[in-house]
Structures are given as structure tokens and as C-alpha cells.
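Expect chain and fold; see below:
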Amino acid sequence: MTELIAGLDIGTTKICAVIGEVDEEDQVYILGVGEVPSRGMRRGVVVNVAEATAAIGEAVEEAEREAQMPMQSAYVGISGAHIAATPSRGVVAIGRGRSITVDDVERALEAARAIAIPHNREIIHTLARSFTVDEQEGVRDPIGMVAYRLEVDAQIITGASSAVQNLIRCVQAHGIAIDDLVLQPLASGTAVLTNAEREMGVALADIGGGTTDIAIFLEGTLWHTVVLDVGGNHMTQDVAVGLRAPFETAEELKKRYGHVLPERVAADEEVTASLFGENGAQSVSRRFLSQILQARVEEILELILREVKRSGYDGLLPAGVVLTGGVAQTAGLRDLSRDVLQLPVRIGLPNGLGGAQLANPAYATAVGLIQWGLQQRRSRPLRRTATSPLLERIIAWLRTLLPG
């Protein structure tokens, strides 16, 4: 029997809702996509509950209309500078001559979660980096191994309770249950990174409108993450100030004519735009526009490089850096990034879902949320049996449309 799976990417510049259908072979088919400009969001967090709730509702309704299916639950992305990662270790006894079970792994992770965190923060993820079975270190999957003692090296991802709860409130206001809150770079990484990159060592930089999410993957798993409080909106603001243009005009110029390598833009090339203090459209030098964008993008790239070096893993990234997010579409970004970062760089496109409709860096998180959810369901089959059947979901949704 088929079932539904959905993702909600609630970003600073856009909100994207995706509804998919999972068949008996665990293949996902995208049924509906809804996308609206964000409201009530700033730098990845909710700043106006009413506006954010309304915008989320519009995106969900659009996806439901296209899918002709209700969204009753969803995997929801979370980001923002309030996100923090803390290493932790958990140890449990196994017992003489007994094989390690899934329950033992869960106990070890629970022990790793038993760390002191401030009362105004809460745990979003507990991610296992590796296990130690007795004296054997670097074990990826300890299940089935005979041991006396199991230890896990984990990464605890936390967020500010206020930011987490406000996001949850906005989603649940529409009667949507949250299957899981998913750190956005984890979701993006699921969508755009190859297994080989994750194994060898790679840094993912998801440059969105309000934030830049950085995640470093080694040996197949997440080893470091940080969220920078800078993104594409800062590029737009620079253009608005530099050209004395409204923000909306600057955003359009950035998207239509933006380039971050001025030397590749003809010196005499001009575009037209409506500027403050002028009547009608005025000519603007595209090279000057490019110079404005280059300055801000170089700063973002230098911040990314600084964080990669600060992590201590900069010498362990043979796969280099994968750039994704809306800003990754900017012309010239890959070549400029190679110059600044001095690492291999590619632009990460979501793979495996939605065809051409979602094959765009701007949809990396939305696609990744669906893929993350599918992986979780595969690894936790009991959760699938607890999911309401597709027919029951449709009937419940139709009932909400009846008058009275």
C-alpha cells in the first residue's frame, strides 16, 4: 500500500511544501509542490507568528491542490544562528557474551544525550559519528557484534527553545503533525551529496536568503555544523544601497543579471531599473552590479573558509566544497569559490526526485527533507506501521472540506 510523505522548507526568502507518494518498493513520486514568498521570517527564525503561519498555510494549500492529497504530517527543516553542535559520548554495558542490539544502540545514544544544556535550549538531533565496541574503535554499525561494552561518539544538535517552539506552533496551527525537525544542512546534504563525497570528506555550504548553513561530512556522517548569519538577502541589500534602488528591484537585478566575476561582464553592458529619485527606468552598469555582488560573495566565502579551518577538518576534505541553496545559482560563483577557498568546488543539485521541476539548488532542502524522511522510515520500520493508511488520510481530509 502506498503512503504519503511531505517536507516543509521554511526559509527566509521562500516557503516550499512538497508532497510525495511512497510505493511498495520505497520509490517516491512527487505529487505536489507549493512555493510562496516568506513572511514573518528573518535569518531562518520566526519573527512574526501570524505572518509566518499564514505563509506556511498558503504553501501547503498550493501543494495540496496540485497533489489532490492532504498534508497531515511533514518533515520540517530548521536553521538559524541559534543552532549549535556539541560533541558527546555515551557508554552502556552489554553483558557477557551477548550481541549488540538496536536497543543497546538506542541506550548508548540516550546516554550521550544526558549532558547539561541550558534550560532555554533543546535537543534537535543526536547523531552517531562512530562506535567503540570494547577496545575496537571506529565501528560504523555495531549491531550483531559480541561485546561487553558499547560506546558512541555522538554529535548533539541543539536549538534555542523559543525558535524551535515558534516554528512548531506555526506548522501545527494548520493541523499538520511534525514527523521530525531536521537540521537544514542535513536535509540538503541528503539531496545533493554523493556517498563518495561523504566518505572521503566534504564541506557542504547551503547559502540561503538569510543564513549560510555549513556541514562537514567525514566517513559517511556529519562531524561538524555551524550556521552563519549571512546570506543572499545581504547581497540584495548591498545592491539596493549601491544603486539606490528598492529592495524588490535589487532582488530582481541580482537574479536576472547577477554575476560575481566583473571581468566577465562587458564594460559597456547596461540594464534598466527603477531607482529612487528618478522618473522611469534608468540605465545601470551591469559590471558595477557585478562588483557589488562580488564583494559580498567574497566575504561569505571567506567566512565559510574561516569556519572550515576553525573546525580543524580543513585538511580532511579531498572532495572539497559543495555549494547549494538559492545563491548557488549565481553566475560565476563556482569559479570565484575555487579562487577563494582553494579547494575543489561544485554546485550541488538535488537528485532523485521531482524531475526538472525540483532540479535546482534552491530546492535542495525541500527535496532533502523527503529523502531524509524516507531514510528514517526505512531504518525504523515500526514507524511505518504506525502511519495511518493513505485512504484514511484522504477521507479525513475530505471531511474537513464538508460544510457544517
Observations:
- The chain has twelve helices and 18 strands.
